[in-house]
């Protein structure tokens, strides 16, 4: 981790807000899913943000996770390094992020490498893992292991087909976005140029 001193003022307030978004219950659920999904002898980390960060920081668990979501022989990260060198570990995190985006996780849901490496935004790491789980459940290709209820299913395309007659009928309807003329009348209006009747 980076050796930084304490932050003060606005920087500290911003960091506290980011840290408040971290969910300890979600951490437990994600750890359980990762261990079940990888189906390997992965050690369960002690609870807590720092332990969760340390567990994921070298990138090996993340790479094993993304590889387990593909059929055997089609893994996106063929060689997972157990290196203790910082740049190798950060490179593995980057490989995971690239593979997650290829798998279907939106770019806006993906954390930055420093969010995990320096522990700047562990809530963003949780959001990425949740998005990855949701995509895996939605794909339903047989590679997902775990309870389907742990993650939300992403909405699928729902195309609607209308006949020409239905489309023509829709052109005659005034949409409520444009307002309504129900109940409108000119009762009590005076003719043009006449003074108003104020009593």
Automatic annotation (TrEMBL):
Report the GO terms under cellular component. Answer: actin cytoskeleton; nucleus; synapse
Q: Which Pfam families match?
A: Calponin, CH
Keyword Phosphoprotein on entry:
yes
Could you tell me which residue ranges the Calponin-homology (CH) domain spans? 24-136
Q: Where is the composition biased (Polar residues)?
A: 176-188
Positions of the region Disordered? 176-199
> Which GO molecular function annotations are given, in alphabetical order?
actin filament binding
Q: Per its UniProt record, what SMART domains does this chain match?
A: CH
Q: Which GO terms describe its biological process?
A: actin filament organization; negative regulation of transcription by RNA polymerase II
The record's InterPro entries line, in alphabetical order, gives:
Calponin-like (IPR050606), Calponin_repeat (IPR000557), CH_dom (IPR001715), CH_dom_sf (IPR036872), SM22_calponin (IPR003096)
Entry keyword annotation includes Signal: no
* Keywords, comma-separated and alphabetical: Phosphoprotein
Q: Which family does it belong to?
A: Belongs to the calponin family.
* Matches recorded under PANTHER family: CALPONIN (PTHR47385), TRANSGELIN-3 (PTHR47385:SF10)
Q: What is this protein called?
A: Transgelin
Which species does this protein come from? Loxodonta africana
């Amino acid at each position: 981790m980076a050796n930084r001193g304490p932050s003060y003022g606005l920087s500290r307030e911003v960091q506290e807000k980011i840290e408040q978004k971290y969910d300890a219950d979600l951490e437990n659920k994600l750890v359980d899913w990762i261990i079940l999904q990888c189906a390997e002898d992965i050690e369960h980390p002690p609870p807590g943000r720092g332990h969760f960060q340390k567990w994921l920081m070298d990138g090996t668990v993340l790479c094993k996770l993304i590889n387990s979501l593909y059929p055997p022989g089609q893994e996106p990260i063929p060689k997972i390094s157990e290196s203790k060198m910082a740049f190798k570990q950060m490179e593995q995190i980057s490989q995971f992020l690239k593979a997650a985006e290829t798998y279907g996780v939106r770019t806006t849901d993906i954390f930055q490498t420093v969010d995990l490496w320096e522990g700047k935004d562990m809530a963003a790491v949780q959001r990425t893992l949740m998005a990855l789980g949701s995509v895996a459940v939605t794909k339903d290709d047989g590679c997902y292991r775990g309870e389907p209820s742990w993650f939300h299913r992403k909405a699928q395309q729902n195309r609607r087909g209308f006949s020409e007659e239905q489309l023509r009928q829709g052109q005659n309807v005034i949409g409520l976005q444009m307002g309504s003329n129900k109940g409108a009348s000119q009762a009590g209006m005076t003719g043009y140029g006449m003074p108003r009747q104020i009593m």
